[in-house]
Design goal:
The structure is a single chain. The chain is an all-alpha fold and 167 residues long. Helix content is 74%, strand content 0%. It has five helices and no strands. The mean pLDDT is 82.
Length: 167
Protein backbone atom coordinates (compact mmCIF):
# COMPACT_ATOMS: atom_id res chain seq x y z
CA UNK A 1 0.00 0.00 0.00
CA UNK A 2 1.26 3.46 -0.86
CA UNK A 3 2.27 5.97 1.77
CA UNK A 4 -0.37 8.47 0.65
CA UNK A 5 -3.09 5.82 1.02
CA UNK A 6 -1.94 5.04 4.55
CA UNK A 7 -1.92 8.72 5.46
CA UNK A 8 -5.41 9.10 4.00
CA UNK A 9 -6.67 6.12 6.03
CA UNK A 10 -5.13 7.57 9.18
CA UNK A 11 -6.71 10.95 8.47
CA UNK A 12 -10.12 9.30 8.10
CA UNK A 13 -9.58 7.37 11.33
CA UNK A 14 -8.55 10.58 13.07
CA UNK A 15 -11.87 12.24 12.17
CA UNK A 16 -13.90 9.21 13.28
CA UNK A 17 -11.88 8.91 16.50
CA UNK A 18 -12.32 12.58 17.33
CA UNK A 19 -16.09 12.33 16.80
CA UNK A 20 -16.28 9.17 18.93
CA UNK A 21 -14.16 10.59 21.74
CA UNK A 22 -16.24 13.78 21.86
CA UNK A 23 -19.52 11.90 22.03
CA UNK A 24 -18.28 9.28 24.53
CA UNK A 25 -16.29 11.22 27.11
CA UNK A 26 -17.28 8.90 29.94
CA UNK A 27 -16.05 5.63 28.40
CA UNK A 28 -14.78 3.39 31.18
CA UNK A 29 -14.06 0.34 29.04
CA UNK A 30 -10.63 -0.24 27.56
CA UNK A 31 -11.05 -0.34 23.79
CA UNK A 32 -7.68 -1.95 23.00
CA UNK A 33 -5.25 -4.41 24.52
CA UNK A 34 -3.22 -2.62 27.16
CA UNK A 35 0.04 -3.58 25.42
CA UNK A 36 -0.97 -2.55 21.91
CA UNK A 37 -0.83 1.20 22.51
CA UNK A 38 1.17 3.28 24.94
CA UNK A 39 -1.92 5.47 25.31
CA UNK A 40 -4.49 4.46 27.91
CA UNK A 41 -6.79 2.73 25.40
CA UNK A 42 -9.89 4.42 26.79
CA UNK A 43 -9.92 7.08 24.07
CA UNK A 44 -9.31 6.46 20.40
CA UNK A 45 -7.75 9.69 19.15
CA UNK A 46 -4.50 9.33 21.16
CA UNK A 47 -4.13 5.83 19.71
CA UNK A 48 -4.60 7.16 16.17
CA UNK A 49 -2.00 9.85 16.82
CA UNK A 50 0.38 7.22 18.19
CA UNK A 51 -0.11 5.12 15.06
CA UNK A 52 0.47 8.17 12.86
CA UNK A 53 3.68 8.90 14.77
CA UNK A 54 4.82 5.31 14.22
CA UNK A 55 4.23 5.66 10.47
CA UNK A 56 6.35 8.81 10.44
CA UNK A 57 9.08 6.94 12.31
CA UNK A 58 8.97 4.12 9.75
CA UNK A 59 9.31 6.61 6.90
CA UNK A 60 12.23 8.35 8.61
CA UNK A 61 14.02 5.06 9.31
CA UNK A 62 13.50 3.85 5.75
CA UNK A 63 15.17 7.01 4.48
CA UNK A 64 18.07 6.40 6.87
CA UNK A 65 18.45 2.78 5.70
CA UNK A 66 17.64 1.16 9.04
CA UNK A 67 18.20 -2.55 9.56
CA UNK A 68 15.74 -4.94 7.93
CA UNK A 69 14.66 -6.52 11.23
CA UNK A 70 13.98 -3.13 12.82
CA UNK A 71 11.92 -2.05 9.83
CA UNK A 72 9.94 -5.28 9.77
CA UNK A 73 9.21 -5.05 13.49
CA UNK A 74 7.96 -1.48 13.18
CA UNK A 75 5.87 -2.27 10.11
CA UNK A 76 4.32 -5.23 11.94
CA UNK A 77 3.48 -3.03 14.93
CA UNK A 78 2.03 -0.38 12.64
CA UNK A 79 -0.08 -2.96 10.84
CA UNK A 80 -1.43 -4.35 14.11
CA UNK A 81 -2.27 -0.89 15.41
CA UNK A 82 -3.94 0.20 12.17
CA UNK A 83 -6.04 -2.96 11.99
CA UNK A 84 -7.07 -2.62 15.64
CA UNK A 85 -8.13 0.99 15.10
CA UNK A 86 -10.11 0.14 11.99
CA UNK A 87 -11.72 -2.84 13.68
CA UNK A 88 -12.78 -0.87 16.75
CA UNK A 89 -14.06 2.09 14.77
CA UNK A 90 -15.94 -0.25 12.42
CA UNK A 91 -17.72 -1.98 15.30
CA UNK A 92 -18.68 1.21 17.12
CA UNK A 93 -22.02 2.45 15.88
CA UNK A 94 -21.81 6.04 14.64
CA UNK A 95 -25.39 6.55 15.82
CA UNK A 96 -28.16 4.54 17.43
CA UNK A 97 -29.49 3.29 14.05
CA UNK A 98 -26.14 1.88 12.97
CA UNK A 99 -25.94 -0.98 15.46
CA UNK A 100 -25.43 -4.56 14.31
CA UNK A 101 -29.16 -5.21 14.60
CA UNK A 102 -29.93 -2.31 12.25
CA UNK A 103 -27.44 -3.18 9.50
CA UNK A 104 -28.71 -4.64 6.25
CA UNK A 105 -28.05 -8.27 5.44
CA UNK A 106 -25.51 -7.24 2.79
CA UNK A 107 -23.64 -5.06 5.31
CA UNK A 108 -23.61 -7.91 7.81
CA UNK A 109 -22.23 -10.32 5.23
CA UNK A 110 -19.55 -7.81 4.23
CA UNK A 111 -18.64 -7.33 7.89
CA UNK A 112 -18.44 -11.09 8.37
CA UNK A 113 -16.15 -11.38 5.34
CA UNK A 114 -13.88 -8.66 6.76
CA UNK A 115 -13.74 -10.43 10.13
CA UNK A 116 -12.86 -13.72 8.40
CA UNK A 117 -9.97 -11.95 6.68
CA UNK A 118 -8.79 -10.57 10.03
CA UNK A 119 -9.16 -14.03 11.57
CA UNK A 120 -6.87 -15.51 8.91
CA UNK A 121 -4.23 -12.85 9.52
CA UNK A 122 -4.45 -13.34 13.28
CA UNK A 123 -4.15 -17.12 12.91
CA UNK A 124 -0.98 -16.59 10.88
CA UNK A 125 0.36 -14.22 13.54
CA UNK A 126 -0.35 -16.80 16.24
CA UNK A 127 1.52 -19.46 14.25
CA UNK A 128 4.46 -17.12 13.74
CA UNK A 129 4.61 -16.20 17.41
CA UNK A 130 4.36 -19.87 18.44
CA UNK A 131 7.42 -20.61 16.34
CA UNK A 132 9.38 -17.74 17.93
CA UNK A 133 8.52 -18.96 21.46
CA UNK A 134 10.72 -16.31 23.07
CA UNK A 135 7.90 -13.76 23.36
CA UNK A 136 5.18 -15.49 25.37
CA UNK A 137 3.34 -12.23 26.16
CA UNK A 138 3.00 -11.30 22.47
CA UNK A 139 1.58 -14.77 21.78
CA UNK A 140 -1.00 -14.39 24.55
CA UNK A 141 -2.03 -10.94 23.30
CA UNK A 142 -2.42 -12.18 19.74
CA UNK A 143 -4.48 -15.16 20.89
CA UNK A 144 -6.74 -12.78 22.83
CA UNK A 145 -7.20 -10.62 19.72
CA UNK A 146 -8.05 -13.75 17.74
CA UNK A 147 -10.62 -14.75 20.35
CA UNK A 148 -12.28 -11.31 20.23
CA UNK A 149 -12.36 -11.47 16.45
CA UNK A 150 -14.02 -14.88 16.54
CA UNK A 151 -16.49 -13.64 19.13
CA UNK A 152 -17.47 -10.74 16.86
CA UNK A 153 -17.78 -13.18 13.95
CA UNK A 154 -20.12 -15.35 16.00
CA UNK A 155 -22.28 -12.37 16.89
CA UNK A 156 -22.50 -11.26 13.26
CA UNK A 157 -23.24 -14.82 12.10
CA UNK A 158 -25.97 -15.12 14.75
CA UNK A 159 -27.55 -11.88 13.54
CA UNK A 160 -27.40 -13.08 9.93
CA UNK A 161 -29.02 -16.38 10.92
CA UNK A 162 -31.77 -14.54 12.79
CA UNK A 163 -32.46 -12.37 9.76
CA UNK A 164 -32.56 -15.35 7.44
CA UNK A 165 -35.32 -16.93 9.55
CA UNK A 166 -37.56 -13.92 9.00
CA UNK A 167 -36.97 -13.50 5.27
Amino acid sequence: MKLEQLKSRLQSLKHKAKAFDESNKQVKVRLFDEHLFQSSGFRILPCVLETESLLNKIVTLSQQSASQSTSETLVDKFSCKLEALERVLATIPSNKQDSVQQKSLAELKASLAQHKFWEQKLCQLVRDKEQNQHDEQALIETEQRLQRCRSAMNQIQYTINQRMKFI
